[in-house]
Amino acid sequence: MADLEYKQVIVVRIDVKMSVGKVAAQAAHVAVLASECARISCKDTWRSWFNEGYRKIVCQASSEQELLDVVSAASKKDLPFAMTRDLGLTEIEAGTLTAVAIGPGKNVDVDSVTGRLKLFK
After folding, report:
1. Is 86 inside any structural domain?
2. Which residues pair with 58 in a beta bridge?
3. What is the pTM of this model?
4. Count of CB atoms within 10 A of residue 118's CB?
5. Cα 110 from chain centroid?
6. Which residues lie closer than 8 Å to 77 by C-beta, 6 or more apart?
7. Over 80: is that where the pLDDT of 58 sits?
8. 121 falls within a domain
9. Residue 74's domain is classified under what CATH number?
10. Mean pLDDT score of the chain, rounded to an integer?
11. With the CA atoms of 33, 105, 73 and 41 taken in that order, what torsion angle do they form, in degrees rounded to the nearest 10?
12. Secondary structure (H, E, C), the chain
């Protein structure tokens, strides 16, 4: 297997009680949003990531503030990112920040923002 140079990291809050299906939906929402942002703003990076198989890693955050800190760090490094807030139609209150996605970007850049986070369990 060739070494992959690009990835996207999705970070999901664990302090908000969500079913497995809800977590999957929130992660999917934010992954698509970040991908579309990158496809428009960083075409070459997006294309390289996509051609490698569009690798995604899912990590966890313990609070809304931790998600916001990740977004702030990504913004300072000019990495594409997206945030998703729930519509409140099923399990959680409308407007709740549930997940963020960082990248796609080069592994070293994305890791500098998300490397300390634990994998989602």
Report:
1. yes
2. 10
3. 0.95
4. 10
5. 10
6. 109, 112, 113
7. yes
8. no
9. 3.40.1490.10
10. 96
11. -50
12. CCCCCEEEEEEEECCCCCCHHHHHHHHHHHHHHHHHHHHHHCHHHHHHHHHCCCCEEEEEECCHHHHHHHHHHHHHCCCCEEEEECCCCCCCCCCCEEEEEEEEEEHHHHHHHHCCCCECC
Q: Per the domain annotation, does 120 fall within a domain?
A: no
Whole-number pLDDT of residue 84: 97
- Cβ atoms of 110 and 103 within 8 Å: the answer is yes
Arithmetic mean of pLDDT, 96-119? 98
Q: Give the mean pLDDT of 69-89.
A: 97
- Flag whether 52 is in a domain: yes
Domain of residue 48 covers 6-114
Which residue, among 82, 49, 51, 89, has the nearest Cα to 67 in the 3D structure?
Answer: 82
The number of folded domains in the chain is: 1
